[in-house]
Amino acid sequence: xxxxxxxxxxxxxxxxxxxxxxxxxxxxxxxxxxxxxxxxxxxxxxxxxxxxxxxxxxxxxxxxxxxxxxxxxxxxxxxx
Length: 80
Hints:
Elements: E1 2-4, H1 6-9, H2 17-33, E2 37-40, E3 49-53, E4 56-61, E5 67-74, H3 75-79
Parallel strand pairs: 1-5
Antiparallel strand pairs: 2-3, 3-4, 4-5
């Protein structure tokens, strides 16, 4: 199961429908299987995780086994 914080909903503005579908499918896949390119975050973000989906990074936590999404960022813009 997964939930979106209101702030994260505004982050989902991919350039096309194919990219949006890829993002949502990746989140659903992780929520059901726990599989994907996952990395635990450190520093101020300790306890949160990053799911990499192509150029996009989904930032989330796992309270009570719920994928709580609080950010979606384009990795190219985030890291450059």
